[in-house]
Amino acid sequence: MIYGYNGCDHLEPVLEALLAAGNRVDPHPQVTGPFRPSQGGMYCPLIDAIDFAVIADIPRVPDVAFDPDDDAIFCHSCWLPIYGGENLRRSREAWERATGKPFQPNTDR
Questions:
Q1: Does residue 104 lie within any of the structural domains?
Q2: Domain range for 47
Q3: Choosing a second label site near 107 at 20 to 30 A (CA), which of 2, 33, 40, 59?
Q4: Is the pTM of this model over 0.85?
């Protein structure tokens, strides 16, 4: 079980290494721990861009994809993504352009 989420233990060493190197989980007003629910399932948002050099030597299963161009890590087995800060910034900017409103985390959960 990874941080109270039963589903993708093989991402734990990756997340631990990123956090130990100084990255942080994007805070949410009503969710503790690194994993958040969304319409598409659980995800982990980081504040800073993913430093892929930090995790380059960590053994991983074939279902885990590192995507530096998208600043993301994705497990095709459990569908759990870890998003770096650049990915989240681009997503939030796209949402703001589309809606004309500033991004606010969903606090209805």
A1: no
A2: 9-99
A3: 2
A4: no
Q: How far apart are CA 26 and CA 13, in angstroms?
A: 19
Q: Does 3 map to a domain? A: no
Q: What is the pLDDT of residue 53?
A: 96
31-65, pLDDT tens digit by residue?
A: 777 888 777 778 889 999 999 999 999 887 788 99
Per-residue tokens: 38 = 């969304």
Please report whether residue 63 resides in a domain: yes
Q: How far apart are CA 83 and CA 101, in angstroms?
A: 22
Q: According to the model, what pLDDT value does residue 1 have?
A: 45
Per DSSP, what are the bridge partners of residue 12?
none
Count of domains for the chain: 1
Q: Tell me the pairing of strands 72-75 and 81-83.
A: antiparallel
